[in-house]
Amino acid sequence: MSLLPLFDDSYFLRPSRILSQQFGSVLEPEDLLQSVFNPRLLVRCPAGYIRNWIDEARDAGSTVSFDKDKFQANIDVQQFKPEEITVKVTGDNTVTIEGKHEETPDEHGYISRHFVRRYVLPPNCDIKQVQSNLSSDGVLTITAPRVSEGKAIEQKEIPIIRTGEPVKKLQQKKEE
């Protein structure tokens, strides 16, 4: 059986979930011992890197969704303070999220982090009404409403609004 049809799947070409948001985080002892105590995990991931699937309850991850009303991206930025994150939109329907903090001490030494993520919004999204909200559990939500037509702008900085609630709790309330 060939694996080639699996790579032709659109999920692999443009995934809606970005795994491995734990850059700069330290592996815990249980992360390393999981494959010893449960060898079936190695079948699922022959490289032995299983942290993303085991830690999913703690990791909000990054998701991108687009429905009839809006474009929405959730980005896990719990390693950054709100003042270390910027969200900008440009006239080419692009939203750019940047997080950066200088070298700071942690329990294992010193660490500095920097990321830049760009999302190209669909052409029928109103780039002037892009909003960003930061939940108490460190998930940044970018929302752009869908409209019939929009005007291009040069560049605009988007303020980050703290919600004070974890995003997992908000999602559970909406489902009920």
From TrEMBL:
<feature type="binding site">
    <location>
        <position position="101"/>
    </location>
    <ligand>
        <name>Zn(2+)</name>
    </ligand>
</feature>
<keyword id="KW-0346">Stress response</keyword>
<dbReference type="InterPro" id="IPR055269">
    <property type="entry name" value="Alpha-crystallin/HSP_16"/>
</dbReference>
<dbReference type="GO" id="GO:0009408">
    <property type="term" value="P:response to heat"/>
</dbReference>
<dbReference type="GO" id="GO:0005737">
    <property type="term" value="C:cytoplasm"/>
</dbReference>
<dbReference type="GO" id="GO:0005634">
    <property type="term" value="C:nucleus"/>
</dbReference>
<feature type="binding site">
    <location>
        <position position="108"/>
    </location>
    <ligand>
        <name>Zn(2+)</name>
    </ligand>
</feature>
<dbReference type="Pfam" id="PF00011">
    <property type="entry name" value="HSP20"/>
</dbReference>
<keyword id="KW-0862">Zinc</keyword>
<dbReference type="InterPro" id="IPR008978">
    <property type="entry name" value="HSP20-like_chaperone"/>
</dbReference>
<feature type="domain" description="SHSP">
    <location>
        <begin position="52"/>
        <end position="161"/>
    </location>
</feature>
<dbReference type="GO" id="GO:0042026">
    <property type="term" value="P:protein refolding"/>
</dbReference>
<dbReference type="GO" id="GO:0051082">
    <property type="term" value="F:unfolded protein binding"/>
</dbReference>
<comment type="similarity">
    <text>Belongs to the small heat shock protein (HSP20) family.</text>
</comment>
<feature type="binding site">
    <location>
        <position position="103"/>
    </location>
    <ligand>
        <name>Zn(2+)</name>
    </ligand>
</feature>
<protein>
    <recommendedName>
        <fullName>SHSP domain-containing protein</fullName>
    </recommendedName>
</protein>
<dbReference type="InterPro" id="IPR002068">
    <property type="entry name" value="A-crystallin/Hsp20_dom"/>
</dbReference>
<dbReference type="InterPro" id="IPR001436">
    <property type="entry name" value="Alpha-crystallin/sHSP_animal"/>
</dbReference>
<dbReference type="GO" id="GO:0046872">
    <property type="term" value="F:metal ion binding"/>
</dbReference>
<keyword id="KW-0479">Metal-binding</keyword>
